[in-house]
Amino acid sequence: MNEKSKRKPNILQKSFYERSTIEVAKDLLGTILVRTIDGKQISGMIVETEAYIGIDPACHAFKGKTEANKALFGPVGHAYIYFIYGNHYCLNAVAHISQEKAGGVLIRAVEPLSGIDIMETNRGTKILKQLTNGPGKLAQAFGITKQLYGVSLMEPGPLYIMNGPDLAIHVCTASRIGISQAQEKQWRFFICDNPFVSR
DNA sequence: AATCGGATCGTCT
DNA sequence: GACGATCCGATTG
After folding, report:
1. Angstrom distances, CA of residue A193 to CA of A67, A89, A171, A189, A196
2. Using the CB atom, is residue A88 less than 7 Å from strand B?
3. Among A64, A67, A124, A142, which one has the highest count of C-beta atoms within 10 angstroms of its own C-beta?
4. Mapping DSSP to helix (H, G, I), strand (E, B) and coil, where does residue A173 land?
5. How far apart are CA A97 and CA A124, in angstroms?
6. Could you tell me if A139 and A158 are in contact, meaning their C-beta atoms sit under 8 angstroms apart?
7. Among all strands, which nt has the closest C1' to A69 (CA)?
8. Nearest residue to B12 (CA, C1')?
9. Has residue A27 got a pLDDT over 80?
């Protein structure tokens, strides 16, 4: 174990996020999303993601940089959060190769691991499968709002992502959900047969 | 089980 | 002024 991993045990670092957005989206499957809030911890294993690269018409960064999407153009390994449909926040991890100007991975679903009682309170339901099986739902369960906009996911703070257990993961691929552009791209990834994948 | 429409508001045109 | 990387409850089969 080297000095770096001693300081930040198991937390994914810049070298993980500074790669092809699609590769990062696949590799985030099976990792652990951790939220610390009020001294308590919520965590879940990422089971569903979607890749959005800057040159892709479905990506929020496609039409250029704005105040709302600027995090997508910022340093990799940070959170890009957006508010949609008047009700919901969604979480992305900024990730792209250095030559690209923007790109991110939408975290669409996780499998609850710890802090399930807090998730139940945040979501207003005790139905386990409905706590985090969708991007808006997991944001609500984890208490993710725009106050976390742009925070680093690479250090022990309010929100970070850790390596998961070394499990054999079978990755399924599909079209992304809820977009009108570039629907043919197969850039949605999920752990096959996991019950917390949306739909 | 599957489908449908309403809620609701930040962001961009 | 319209729309959206969604969710939920109601209704129908």
Report:
1. 38, 26, 10, 12, 9
2. no
3. A142
4. strand
5. 39
6. no
7. B11
8. A66
9. yes
